[in-house]
Structures are given as C-alpha cells and as structure tokens.
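To the team - 4'-deoxy-4'-aminopyridoxal-5'-phosphate complex, inputs and output below.
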Amino acid sequence: MSAIPTRADLAALPAYVPGRTVPGAIKLASNEVPGGPLPSVAEAITRASREINRYPDMGAWALVERLASEFDVPTSQVAVGCGSVSLCQQFVQALCAPGDEVLFAWRSFEAYPIVTQVGNATPVRVPLTPSHTHDLDAMLAAITPKTRLVFVCNPNNPTGTAVRTEELTRFLDAVPSDVLVVLDEAYREFVTDPDVPDGMEFARTRPNVAALRTFSKAYGLAGLRVGYAVASEPVIEALRKVYVAFSVNALAQSAALASLDAKDELLARCAEIVGERTRVRDALLGMGYEVPETMANFVWLPLRERTAEFAEHALDHKIVVRPFAGEGVRVTIGTAEENDVFLEAARAYLA
Ligand code: PMP
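Output:
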C-alpha cells in the first residue's frame, strides 16, 4: 500500500513538548496555578454540562460582551479562541501569505515557530540579550518588507523577564504601520512592576497592536482552553474568519464568565503566588543560582549544559520541572509546600 502524501515540510516542524505529568511527583512544569476551580466556577461548569447535547454559542457572545466591557472596547475589537495558543495560530493564518515572515524573540513561547510554519510563513528568531530580555532594537532591525507579524511575549515565557514602558513605546513607534505586533500577555495578572506596560492600553489606541491573554494561567482554566485577543476591528474580523467553528466549548465559555465574576478572589490567589515567587527567587539567589527577575508565575534557571542533569535531579526529588535542552530550566511557582520541596531539591543539587 502506498502512503498518503502529506506536506513534506511538516517533517521539519519543531515538536511542541508539553510539561510532563509524572504520577507521584509535583508538577511545576506547565505554569499552571496550583488551586482547583472555585466552587462558583465548578457550579457554572456543572450547570453548562446539562446542555452539552447542544452546540455552544458559536461566537461566544456573552463572553465577548463581558470582555469588551471589562476592557472598555467595542465587541468588534474582541475575539476568543480555543486557548491563546489557538489565537496565535489564527493571527498567522489571518495575516500571512506563504513566505511572509513572523518575528519573535528566542527563546520565547515554543508555539510561535510551530504555528508560523504550520501557516506556511517563515519564522525569524531574534536572540534574547545576555540578560535574558527582549532585544527590541535587534527585533526592529530584523523587520523586513516581508514581516507581517511580531510576537512580543511580555512577560516572556520561559525567562519571566518583562519589557518596560519606555522601550516598548519606542519600539511600537518605530514598527511599520502595516506590521501587527501581538503583545502576548499570558502572564499579565502576575506582573507587579507598574513600569511593565498594560498591552490593552496599546491595543485600544494603536491599530497595529493586539493584546493576547488567556484564562489558562491566573484564572486557572488551563484544562478548558479559552483565550482572547483585543485588536483593531479588521484584525478581529480576520481572526474570526479563521476560527475553527465552535472551538471554544460551552463549559469553557461558562467557566470563563464565572471566573470573571470571581475575579477578585482569583487575583488574590495570584497575589499569593507572587509572594511565593519572591520567596523562591530570593532563596535560589541565596544559594548562588542565576535567576533573572521574573514577572510571571515561574522562575528561569539558565543552567545551560547542566539543564538535563538538574531536571533529572529534581525528578529524583519528586519535582517535575521544564527543561529546555542546553539552555535552562523553567520552574512554575506552586503552593508554599511544593515550593519548599523544590527548594530543597535545588539545595541538594549544589551539595
Ligand atoms: N502564550 C504564552 C506566552 C504561553 O506561555 C502560553 C502557554 N504556555 C500560551 C500563550 C498559550 O496558553 P493557552 O493556549 O493555554 O491560553
């Protein structure tokens, strides 16, 4: 039997490597929050589950309206997607013709090169600075007439570092007006430095800027898959054209709405994680580890050639971290108890 021919270029596609789940070990590998759903959110999911014989609201209109009022934009400037990773793919599909370039820092969120190549566009990676931050000047210099899209992950996954208002404003002022800059703010709710700009402000006022957020992290709905983007009307219209019909399911829509109702409580949980983040980073610095300043719910240990060894050592101590081969290890902030187990492992690694 002859094989069905599939796209030859898919063989060269980098694989998305999800954080591992190891029975009996603490998972600090996927930047999830440690707490399960609030009772009100669980109730909303149960209520919605009674009608899953019906298709969900295709446009997720209640959620779109709620987000529009939350961010003070018209509904024509809001799109939802099956996780913000789906919206990353939609941006490429909506904006890029074959061979167009999509620019992003590297290392950054590993889905960027994948969705770019799936969309037949060309990924252009601009190295982070030696201090693990975006090199916005180099990114600006890398823009060509073929560039259609730039992802700026702020705070950056996996380094946790964040660009500040002055440098981002300067960058956005200089980017050509026909290039869309997507500010990927998956970790926005964990940002504590007021000088890290709110991407929604830019998305509201600049037609070539989009802000991308998710219910997966601070809102604790990673398993339900819902993200959203705020952008100018033509961009949102194009995102909706490439939306896979019904891909934000009914449970996700209801849970997202209930989470917005419980925003204060959920953000208070984030504040606890931020407190733990400071404690974990300070402890690691005290042990002599290099740990860049982080504005997200994880820390980055640029361990380079010791990355795999450290990850194995952590697993021996029942902690699953996220190794990036030859570069470093990303560790999600968990509960205080989980973080203590990790810190003990980190201490033992040096012994
Ligand atoms: N953007 C960034 C920077 C991320 O780290 C992630 C998840 N790891 C996503 C987007 C996608 O998240 P989700 O699809 O769960 O919304």
